[in-house]
Design brief:
eight-stranded parallel sheet, nine-stranded mixed sheet, PLP-binding_barrel, pyridoxal phosphate, alpha/beta, isomerase, single chain, binds pyridoxal-5'-phosphate, disordered N terminus, 393 residues, TIM Barrel, 19 strands, 29% helix, 11 helices, Lyase, Ornithine Decarboxylase, Chain A, domain 1, Alanine racemase, EC 5.1.1.1
Length: 393
């Protein structure tokens, strides 16, 4: 349920002027984690909440994921991990993007688990361990065929040996070994099985030099939902935590027992009659066919509405879908509401939500803009206030 558009701001969202809001259902996040945990069998859930929790807000989403039973949290960047700790989130927390020369002291002192996917990274972690006198918890990132982060070949051998030596000295605790799929969204693709076999061989290679990390993790959302054999000790879903389907051709959120946590709304700020033949928005890429009514929505590409969705993005107004008329501007876009529209300035319009009340979904926007739902939610601009509903508070 969303609140009516005239509610006061939620704490932490200031100033509030009511032009738009993203309402985030924290109970949906908790329930989604519960469902993913159920699907993961004996494996536990590491909830990936990078990129401001896929646009949903880092700290509230972290707490909601933990309330749903996530055992571990993960973010891409070190700065995101430090923000979580500074906000008082003290659950186990993995991060994997930092650069040579970054000061790891605060991360180590705040008990953040660091990923090592290259020789320089395991050396930097070893140095941070000596500087702080602490034992650093480490997950070793291996490239089993994605061709992105992590080490392979001789580089992997070096990282494994160095990690084993540091562990023998008490400088690190190698708690995890992990990798990432290239084709998890196509479960029958031969690389999926091949990456799992490589992963298992690498775990064996690590064991031979004395490393037997208890947390082996490989499965993102798509693998968690479609490939139970990839669950190992922990699954690592992100998108599905927020109730979106990573494999829309294979199943909707509902099919997977998930529900979308974000609902993006705005209020019409101008509604006016327009004659037939009127060009609309920059470049007049839309021209009215009949006498009609134009409605102005105060959201644009700086708020995350894809500029690619000009003449394509769906928006529901009082239960009826309309398509963005003409170009999406930086702060605004226009709808052709039709001659008989009863819409008025101040009415709420819905860009996307769960779809259960007939509104579009983030997946509909992804299709309209030629992208994936990941991009629709993560690109939501900082200017759009997040309002939280549900949750323990
Ligand atoms: C983003 C990410 C995930 C989560 O992926 P989803 O497809 O959103 O579930 C897991 N692991 C790594 C390494 C990632 O970068």
């Amino acid at each position: 349920m969303t609140s009516p558009p005239h509610d006061p701001p939620s704490p932490g969202v200031t100033p509030w002027y009511g032009t738009s809001r993203a309402s985030i259902d924290l109970d949906a996040i908790s329930d989604n984690v519960r469902e993913l945990d159920r699907r993961a069998g004996d494996a536990s859930v590491m909830a990936v909440i990078k990129a401001d929790a896929y646009g949903h807000g880092l700290v509230p989403s972290a707490r909601a994921a933990l309330a749903g039973g996530a055992r571990y949290l993960a973010v891409a960047q070190l700065a995101e991990a430090v923000s979580l700790r500074r906000a008082g989130v003290d659950a186990p927390l993995l991060t994997w993007l930092f650069a040579p020369g970054d000061d790891l002291t605060e991360a180590v002192e705040r008990d953040i688990t660091l990923s090592a996917g290259a020789s320089w990274a395991i050396e930097a972690i070893g140095a941070a361990a000596s500087a702080t006198g602490r034992t650093v918890r480490v997950h070793l990132k291996v490239d089993t065929g994605l061709g992105r982060g992590g080490s392979w070949g001789d580089g992997l051998d070096q990282v494994l040996r160095r990690a084993a030596a540091l562990q023998a000295e008490g400088a690190v605790e190698v708690e995890g070994i992990w990798s990432h799929f290239a084709w998890a969204d196509a479960p029958a693709h031969p690389t999926v099985r091949a990456q799992q076999e490589t992963f298992e061989e690498i775990c064996e290679q690590a064991r031979r030099i004395g490393l037997a990390p208890p947390l082996r993790h490989l499965a993102n959302s798509a693998a968690t939902l479609t490939n139970p054999s990839a669950a190992y000790d922990m699954v690592r879903p992100g998108l599905s935590v927020f109730g979106l389907s990573p494999v829309p051709d294979l199943g909707s959120p509902e099919d997977f027992g998930l529900r979308e946590a974000m609902r993006l709304t705005a209020r019409l700020v101008n509604v006016k009659p327009a004659p037939a033949g009127q060009g609309v928005s920059y470049g007049h890429e839309y021209v009215t066919e009949t006498d009609t009514t134009l409605g102005l929505v105060p959201l644009g590409y700086s708020d995350g509405v894809p500029r690619h969705a000009g003449n394509a993005g769906p928006i529901s107004v009082n239960g009826t879908w309309h398509t963005v008329a003409g170009r999406v501007c930086m702060d605004q876009l226009v709808l052709d509401l039709g001659a008989s529209s009863t819409a008025a300035a101040g009415d709420e319009v819905v860009l996307f939500g769960r779809g259960v009340d007939g509104e579009p979904t983030a997946q509909d926007w992804a299709e309209a803009a030629g992208t994936i739902s990941y991009e629709i939610v993560t690109r939501l601009g900082a200017r759009v206030p997040r309002e939280y509903v549900g949750g323990e508070a």
